[in-house]
Amino acid sequence: LKNIGLAHGILGEIQIAENELEAAKAHLEKSVLNHSAMMPTREVIRFRGTLSVLLAQEGDAEGARALLDHGLVQYSNLPKLALIDVLAKMAMVEHFLGDTQQADAYLSKATSLARPLELSKTAPIQASLQHATATLATADKQPSLLVDTQGNWFQIDGQTTWLIRRKALRQIFAALVDNHQQAIGRGLSLDEMLEAGWGDERI
Length: 203
Description:
Helix content: 55-70%
Structural class: mainly alpha
Shape: globular
Radius of gyration: 18 Å
Number of strands: 3
């Protein structure tokens, strides 16, 4: 029973990456509502934040804000990395709920805390901050495409599609992004895309 909450939380995050949002929500709710007492504080905060973003996307303002407010009150002396993660997710929550001023304030605070740190050594926090930045960047703008240069995700009009669990697609997408930056106007050939996605593997 000790690791059930952690397992549910990780499954929820995996299913978000695969765009299975209803299943993700169910796992995250089991993690933070039923098993948080048995998990490390850092993981409780992480999964609460992720669930709150899902609730905000559904328009559940009360539920989304209650999860994060509760987290900040209960864990008032957060380590800096955990606080950055919470602030980034609070920014996304307020963005989805329409309070762009508060969203910008949370993101600004998270960014200022992260600036002196070597976030390359803390990839999950860096990913959370980058995702929040990309999400807020779509506010009040014309339809847009935002991409992760590593190919992990792309975002169209604020809707994120994750490719983390899709190795070949992620590698092809990253190659397309890199090619666009290096040689605008020239596409990749079929052979180049096959090489990017599968390398020497047999297809």
